[in-house]
Design goal:
globular; mainly beta; five-stranded antiparallel sheet; seven-stranded antiparallel sheet
Length: 237
């Protein structure tokens, strides 16, 4: 599991990811970098999250699979813990998945990208509608930060992203895998639970795209997962 602006509770989860500070930029000669990601730090909200799986409360973000349960963490949820017990799952810095402060601001999201339990191929994703479509006339710099959740026992190098012209929303049926070839994968196993690790890549689209999805797009058989911690706390790993 990774943490940083993503997360949710699921008894199938063994690996969870989270990101923070999402930036997709390009420069026009002497002009400053222009961020194309809507609400890249997840701080602009429609309302404070009070339950897991409410990533759509962060403006510009939503779940592309209705069966997945990606989570939204915000410090504003801390004030609810005495009246709504479920908010303890998504509080900051202590929550069900470990301990982590936001890299910047007051929010992050978390998602599961691999599970060695049933159901097979269980995945969670987050998706963003870009401020403006990206075009094949520019090369973009994509930057995000990842932190590994303490509760996770497996890590994978297959965290990636995919650009599209549609929202790729699937139905409720399990599994929730989006089976496509990603535009990018991190290629390394991240297991740092203390720091936010920067992931950065250059991307030149082959077309014009409006939507951006992040997660693991490979099935279990083709996911490069390794165990990094003993298999304890069986319910939530």
């Amino acid at each position: 599991m990774y943490k940083e602006q993503f997360n949710m509770i699921s008894k199938w989860r063994r690996a969870i990811i989270a990101l923070l500070c999402f930036v997709l930029t390009y420069s026009l000669k002497a002009q400053p970098m222009i961020n194309q990601i809507t609400n890249g730090s997840f701080e602009d909200t429609t309302q404070c999250p009070f339950f897991p799986s409410q990533i759509d409360f962060a403006k510009g973000w939503f779940k592309p699979t209705l069966g997945g349960s990606s989570d939204y963490f915000n410090t504003c949820s801390n004030s609810f813990t005495n009246t709504i017990p479920s908010t303890s799952i998504i509080t900051i810095p202590n929550n069900r998945f470990g301990f982590q402060y936001p890299r910047t601001g007051n929010a992050y999201q978390g998602l599961g990208i691999y599970s060695n339990k049933n159901p097979t191929d269980y995945r969670e994703y987050i998706k963003n509608k870009l401020i403006k479509p990206i075009t094949n006339t520019k090369t973009y710099c994509i930057t995000f930060y990842v932190s590994f959740a303490e509760i996770s026992r497996f890590t994978t190098s297959n965290l990636g992203y995919y650009f599209s012209n549609d929202s790729i929303v699937s139905g409720w049926a399990m599994p929730t895998l989006i089976s496509i070839t990603p535009d990018f994968e991190i290629g390394s196993h991240l297991s740092d639970t203390i720091n936010w690790i920067q992931i950065q890549s250059a991307y030149t689209p082959g077309n014009s795209f409006r939507f951006f999805t992040i997660g693991n797009f490979r099935d279990d058989n083709n996911t490069n997962a390794i165990q990094v911690k003993p298999l304890i706390n069986q319910i939530y790993n």
